[in-house]
Design brief:
The chain has about 775 residues and is an alpha+beta fold. About 25% of the residues lie in helices and about 25% in strands. The strands form 7 sheets. Strands 3-7-1-14-11-12-13 form a 7-stranded mixed beta sheet. A 6-stranded mixed beta sheet has the order 9-17-16-15-10-29. Strand 26 and strand 27 form a beta hairpin. About 55% of the residues are buried. InterPro entries: Ald_Oxase/Xan_DH_a/b, Ald_Oxase/Xan_DH_a/b_sf, Ald_Oxase/xanthine_DH-like, AldOxase/xan_DH_MoCoBD1, AldOxase/xan_DH_MoCoBD2, AldOxase/xan_DH_Mopterin-bd_sf. This is Xanthine dehydrogenase family protein molybdopterin-binding subunit.
Length: about 775
């Protein structure tokens, strides 16, 4: 995969340091991850690999029904099985019986009613994993099966599925003149499927009871303090008697931890007094954790005769599944960004999140924003077609810039180089057409033996413009704490920001190297004895945790430089640290950092808290978000119009990143995000007929593999620093996930002339029955 911009920077950095003894360090350098060797050698400590003396194994009994009343639960047979040490149900939860990451409404174990397929009912601890599974299956549950509510539109009229009702949140956004109308109007109905995070490693954990009656949980958590507080409440313990130790996280594209696994594990450890381990099967993983919100969207766009947007009207319905989770946040993002990165003077959006008996939905990268991006970009294509304009030209006439106002009334104060991004992908050379020869058949949709005649293949080019918010929003207190210690010439960073694959530990090392000029920097393992850093999502840790590390390092820097400044009669501001040396502005002082640190032990603790935000009001207005990032993608696809197969030939990406902190790491994050978007566009849809999860495995759920990943051309990275963000950097992972499905759908529309109003794109949506055509670009 090509990455011109970042490769040039990395090569330049290498050239600049050629012939020197000290390798490049600090920000802007492609510093490799510290855990690379351990992961490649298989010694990285994942939760599934942990062991303890006297270990027991856990298994969870889950509901086979999406909706049922529980008449009785009989655990007698399970308890009497040889090797079984404990069986727990809702009756054994000593503390708060409900939990959740957003609104606390999800029971640890179902008691009276089952609300979704796979809901936890009981858990077993035994001396062998097979015994635990057989004992869980031996728990007898009598159900009165109820009709499930699986259509979110039915949830408004259905009987309440939960004591809190079926409506989780309603946001009516009102912006501008409701009577405004355009010369042209286009309408559309769109559906977005249920994407699963599908982590590489399924959920696992180890719970170890403590002598003081507490418990330690070893988990791949991305929010250890949030998990600790929820666990302590369920266990009826004070938070200081529950400790979360973060193990290696095997990939995270969402809130990696799911408490339907964690809480039963801790309860079993407390009940048995023994360490208990749980390793979920892939089926349990699909049934237990949250998914992307399936969404129904209705849009009406008004434009004038020149293609300028006049008004956008939309209805957005999110299927939250059985419980609220983070649906309120996802709905706010969907409503706030419902018009996309375009100037829209008048907007009227209705958004709802409702409960159903479908599997729970929650935070998945780009939640809310991905769904609306697919819809508003389809609307822009419809407008372009109706006006006879090039799709890129129509978008260029409407893109927003810094200083424009969102439909929420919030002014875009951060850099918003949307026009520059669109120009970059529009002007990038198109890939060549494949040759019509047998040896090149693998280039056609479906691969070898998978496509029809080459004459049935059409090429399409489409565009997508996306935006996401950074950090949380609507008044969330985004704060992180970090400590930097220096002893014997080695710096150690203590911060509860979890490394989920986003590269925080590498960034923390680079920050300290940049500020202090110290080569050897270590990042301590994460647990809840450290101050909280918050959840690892929405690129929070680059901003708030990286900001905290920088501030702590600068405080240590002052401690280091103060004696030297005093000795030479100058302020610390007149000293600088570069290339491992401390020098003064006048050249009088020049000494190695290692020499200045000799015999010293320095440390400092600092916090980073971005400026406050506010909730959206009753009209959907408010400064709800700290900042935003933007992306433009041009997709080129080949479509077999007889069988509906789609091959993504190339995705050209331009993104505003604020500042490149690690070129190689940034390129990898963009490429991974784009590939996740390819899955959402073409293959990933967790099917739930009648509320039952169908084929909960990686055979039935089609993840894109390396063979499905297209050529990804990162054609431009706009480094216009966000002045309110530490280092000026922006979120990079979520916005390509949001944008690539919309661009791919646009390209399929261009190739086939079909509307393509559903994601993932089904083969029948790409079939054209009007006969074959030669292989051409849609723009030819």
């Amino acid at each position: 995969m090509s990455n011109e911009a970042t490769t040039v920077q990395a090569a330049q950095a290498t050239e600049d340091t050629a012939g020197t003894e000290r390798p490049p360090r600090g920000l802007g350098v492609s510093l490799p991850a510290a855990d690379t060797r351990a992961k490649t050698e298989g010694t990285f400590p994942y939760a599934a690999d942990l062991w303890a003396e006297g270990l027991l194994w856990a298994a969870v009994l889950r509901s086979p029904h999406p909706h049922a009343r529980i008449a009785s639960i009989d655990t007698t047979h399970a308890r009497e099985m040889p090797g079984v040490r404990a069986v727990v149900t809702h009756e054994d939860v000593p503390g708060t019986p409900v939990y959740e990451r957003g609104r606390a409404d999800r029971p640890v174990f179902a008691s009276d009613v089952v609300r979704h397929h796979g809901e936890a009912i009981a858990a077993v601890a035994a001396d062998h994993p097979d015994t635990a599974r057989m004992a869980a299956a031996a728990v007898i549950v009598e159900y009165e099966v109820l009709d499930p509510v699986i259509d979110p539109e039915q949830a408004f009229e259905a009987e309440p599925l939960h004591p809190d009702g079926n409506l989780i949140r309603h946001i009516p956004l009102r912006h501008g003149d409701p009577d405004a109308a355009g010369d042209l109007v286009v309408e559309g109905l769109y559906r977005i499927g249920r994407q699963d995070p599908a982590p590489i490693g399924a959920e696992a954990g180890l719970a170890v009871p403590r002598p003081d009656g507490g418990v330690e949980l070893y988990l791949a958590s991305t929010d250890p303090h949030g998990d600790r507080d929820a666990a302590a409440a369920a266990f009826g313990l004070e938070p200081d008697r529950v400790k979360i130790v973060v193990t290696g996280v095997p990939g995270a594209t969402a809130d990696r931890e799911d408490q339907s696994f964690q809480l039963p594990l801790g309860l079993l450890a407390l009940k048995t007094g023994c360490p208990v381990k749980l390793t979920a099967t892939r089926e349990e993983s699909f049934l237990g954790h949250a998914h992307r919100h399936p969404t129904l969207l209705r849009y009406r766009h008004h434009a004038d005769a020149e293609g300028k947007l006049v008004k956008v009207e939309a209805q957005i319905l999110l299927d939250a599944g059985a419980y609220a989770n983070t649906s309120s946040d996802a709905l706010a993002a969907a409503v706030a960004f419902a018009c996309g990165p375009y100037v829209v003077p008048n907007a009227f959006i209705e958004g709802w999140a409702v409960r159903t008996n479908n599997p729970p939905s929650g935070h998945v990268r780009g939640e809310g924003a991905l769904q609306v991006c697919a819809a508003y970009e389809a609307q822009m294509d419809k407008l372009a077609k109706k006006l006879g304009l090039d799709p890129a030209e129509l978008r260029m006439r409407n893109v927003m810039a810094t200083g424009d106002v969102l439909p929420t009334g919030q002014t875009v104060t951060c850099p918003a180089p949307v026009a520059e991004l669109l120009e970059a992908v529009r002007d990038h050379p198109l890939p060549p057409l494949p040759k019509d020869t047998p040896e090149d058949e693998w280039l056609l949709p479906g691969g070898p033996e998978g496509a029809g005649e080459p004459g049935a293949v059409r090429r399409g080019v489409g565009y997508g413009l996306g935006m996401v918010h950074m950090l949380g929003g609507e008044g969330a207190d985004e704060v992180s704490t970090a400590t930097v210690k220096v002893q014997d010439g080695v710096a150690t960073v203590l911060c509860a920001a979890v490394e989920t694959g986003q590269g925080f530990t590498t960034l923390a090392r680079q920050i300290v190297q940049e500020v202090l000029g110290i080569d050897e920097v270590r990042v301590a393992p994460v647990d809840t004895d450290q101050p909280a850093a918050g959840a690892g999502c929405r690129s929070r840790h680059t901003w708030v945790s990286g900001g905290a590390v920088e501030r702590a390092a600068k405080m240590v820097r002052t401690q280091l430089l103060a004696p030297l400044a005093h000795k030479f009669g100058m302020s610390t501001e007149l000293l600088q640290i570069t290339d491992g040396r401390i020098t003064s502005y006048d050249g009088v002082l020049s000494t190695p950092v290692a020499e200045a640190l000799d015999g010293k032990e320095l440390w400092a603790t600092a916090q980073c808290r971005p400026h406050p935000t506010e909730p959206l009001d009753e009209a959907g207005q408010g400064d709800a978000y700290v900042g935003m990032s933007f992306c433009a993608i041009r997709a080129v696809v080949d479509v077999d119009i007889e069988i509906g197969s789609v091959r993504v030939v190339e995705l050209a990406v331009a993104q505003d990143v604020g500042r490149v902190l690690n070129p190689a790491q940034l390129a990898a994050r963009i490429e991974a995000g784009v590939t996740q978007g390819v899955g959402a566009a073409l293959t990933e849809n967790l099917r739930t007929p009648r509320g039952l999860v169908r084929h909960p495995d990686l055979t039935g759920y089609a993840l894109p593999t390396a063979l499905d990943a297209p050529d990804i051309e990162i054609v431009k990275l706009v480094e216009e620093r966000d002045v309110v963000a530490p280092f000026g950097a922006k979120a990079v992972s979520a916005v390509p996930v949001v944008t690539s499905p919309a661009a791919i759908a646009a390209a399929v529309r261009a190739a086939t002339g079909r509307p393509v109003n559903r994601l993932p794109i089904r083969p029948q949506a790409a079939v054209v029955t009007s006969g074959r055509d030669r292989l051409v670009r849609s723009t030819d």
